[in-house]
Amino acid sequence: MLSVKNLSIEFSRYGKGWQRRTLHPVRDMSLNIDSGEIVAVVGSSGSGKSLLAHAILGLLPSNAHATGEIEFKGEPVTMRSVKQLRGRQIALIPQSVAYLNPLAKVGRQVYRASRLSGHCCRDAACNTDHAFDRYRLSNGVKSMYPFQVSGGMARRVLTATATAGDADLLIADEPTTGLDTEVAHQSLTHLRELADTGKGIMLITHDIAAAVGIADRVAVIYAGTTVELTPAAAFSGNGTLRHPYAQALWSALPQQNFQFVGGNQPMEDHMIEGCIYGDRCPRRTETCLRPQELRPVKDGQVRCCHA
User: Fold this and answer.
1) Which of 2, 17, 139, 197 has the highest local Cβ count within 10 Å?
2) Whole-number average pLDDT of the chain
3) What is the pLDDT of residues 7-23, one digit of tens each?
């Protein structure tokens, strides 16, 4: 359904003395999502996960320059075609509640999203009712404005807005932030239910433990680079992960006793010639000084010469 190949994003900025800087927040991202599949995209803050979502939807700022290939249902996604896809065939559950229109009642916003996806007035009204019931939002919330609802309720409204239509691909950017454990579990379970009906789901999250409970595969991102694509089952027990960063990410979770790896990911204005993780990797050798390609290994893909 969705294919992203070698996506890179650069920003041009001016610093002190009008000195121009080129930032590289996304260096080489590749992943694919099939119908009926949930792919969790995980990695540390600042690794470019949200930029990936914005690039797919054509929402990058004007000072961004993107290269690579993005295809949806076998067709290239261009600046012209994405306008027809966005909100209709591809829907976003954004990370920030600021995406809600402050001048429109939340019920009207969910209804409008369903109408824009192609539903008639009656079906859109039914979809709105079902979405509010699904995310435990009372009928009275429909007449409220965004500033009148709590942060957790606003988050649920955003999810209801994205799922009230009939999009084939849902991009969920941290959809459980600010939700209590029970509602967060219900939201993720509903994403699993949507995938089981044939929809593709991209789940961007920091909550690895919750994500692997519903995801089919996991894309591990480091410094704007896909370092491993693996079945979700690799994140269990002692793990069967192949890339050192993916292993470190799993080991840093509470159930793995918070095992810590020193160092920081590269700055966005630094050019990296060899392995993107090389300066922190305990397995580094001279071979790691050469660029590492994302290559198939058994049931996944990994960007490491030692895997």
Assistant:
1) 2
2) 88
3) 999 988 777 767 778 88
> What residue ranges in the chain does DSSP mark as E strands?
2-14, 20-33, 38-42, 64-72, 75-76, 90-93, 169-173, 200-204, 217-222, 225-231, 295-297, 300-302
- Determine phi and psi for 95, rounding to 5 degrees: -75, -35
Contact 187, 201 (CB under 8 A): no
Residue 246 covered by a domain: yes
pLDDT tens, position by position, 70-92: 999 999 998 889 988 988 899 99
Q: Which two tokens stand for residue 126?
A: 């039914």
Whether the predicted pLDDT of 259 surpasses 80 = no
In three-state secondary structure terms, 70 is strand
pLDDT at 238: 67
Instruction: Give me the domain span that covers residue 69.
Output: 2-89+167-302
User: Per the domain annotation, does 108 fall within a domain?
Assistant: no
The CA distances from residue 35 to 139, 191, 194, 233, in Å, are 33, 13, 10, 19
User: Could you tell me which residues are beta bridge partners of residue 41?
Assistant: 204, 219
- The string of pLDDT tens digits covering residues 118-145 is 888 998 999 899 989 988 888 899 999 9
Average pLDDT of the segment spanning 235-249: 84
Q: Is 202 inside a domain boundary? A: yes
- Using a 10 angstrom Cβ sphere, with 0-12 exposed, 13-18 middle and 19 or more buried, the burial of residue 20 is exposed
The CA-CA-CA angle for residues 291, 296, 300, to 5°, reads: 120
Q: What's the CATH number where 259 sits?
A: 3.40.50.300
**Nearest-5° Cα angle at 53, 66 to 266:** 65
* Least confident range of 102-116, 156-170, 263-277: 263-277
Give the length of the chain.
Answer: 307
